[in-house]
Amino acid sequence: xxxxxxxxxxxxxxxxxxxxxxxxxxxxxxxxxxxxxxxxxxxxxxxxxxxxxxxxxxxxxxxxxxxxxxxxxxxxxxxxxxxxxxxxxxxxxxxxxxxxxxxxxxxxxxxxxxxxxxxxxxxxxxxxxxxxxxxxxxxxxxxxxxxxxxxxxxxxxxxxxxxxxxxxxxxxxxxxxxxxxxxxxxxxxxxxxxxxxxxxxxxxxxxxxxxxxxxxxxxxxxxxxxxxxxxxxxxxxxxxxxxxxxxxxxxxxxxxxxxxxxxxxxxxxxxxxxxxxxxxxxxxxxxxxxxxxxxxxxxxxxxxxxxxxxxxxxxxxxxxxxxxxxxxxxxxxxxxxxxxxxxxx
Length: 345
Description:
With 345 residues, the chain is α+β, with helices and mostly antiparallel strands. The protein has 2 domains: 3-179, HIT-like (HIT family, subunit A), CATH 3.30.428.10; 183-342, 2-Layer Sandwich (HIT family, subunit A). It is 28% helix and 20% strand. The protein contains 8 helices and 14 strands. The chain has helices at 30-35, 127-144, 182-198, 202-213, 254-275, 300-303, 319-324, 333-342, and strands spanning 3-6, 13-16, 54-56, 70-74, 89-91, 94-98, 102-107, 152-159, 171-177, 217-220, 224-227, 238-242, 280-285, 307-312. A 10-stranded antiparallel beta sheet has the order 3-4-7-9-8-13-14-12-11-10, with helices on both faces. Strands 2-1-6-5 form a 4-stranded antiparallel beta sheet, with no helix packed on it. α2 packs across α5. The protein is globular, with a radius of gyration of 20 Å. The N and C termini lie far apart (46 Å).
């Protein structure tokens, strides 16, 4: 089993996952995997993955067989395992616990290649397909939130070798952790401070100001806004936010899910067209799991605002960024937004 160890200086938890050293990606690049005839995520190979947890099967086919549109399986090389107890303990001054959590793979489509032989990516999806993927995210969030061992659930996608992808077949991942990650905790603290000072959600104020200025908007519809953040860490970084205040992603309505699917497709088509289909990561930040206990955060529903962060991997970070926490972004977000917004897709 993996371990969670806490950095005593900055309070960051680190997963020590010895089992993952034998992943295929440690020995084979994603491009090499893509060229092989065998892919464990393709239809007909359902018995080569762990048994499915969830699937959308339009033809009502049996579990772990062909006929699925989206399929969720446990990660074969998990960072955290769902079995067991946390067993929190101290070793001298250090804190640690068992690596209990959940690590799932969302296989987004049965298709591996387009009709022209290119690897399929989000830009190639239909609105129905993107909606099915978001429905799967929503369902898995709601289910895992019932487990009181978990404090946070993150869904993310790595596309391309430089973004950390280990298999070429289109997929995203879900990791549920027994602690709130430091990066998310920083957002929570900042949002709470802003709400206590102004009695407003900081993201709602950002949305209002960005709509008024129209300097950094990439795309929008009646329910969602895609923008280049004012203090973007990376070139062409994009955030997608619901215009209606909402702290929890899984509470979106059916109509909102359709509109989010449409906007995501528009944004990713612009990224692919304007930036030559770069590798990228995206992360879905939603409010943490909440259980009434001493110190329970009472205002999260009012001060936190779920959102999606999209990071095209166009530059690499060096010693300055790692050593200081400062990021050097050579592309002003205003220019990035203007360029992407101008692209017809």
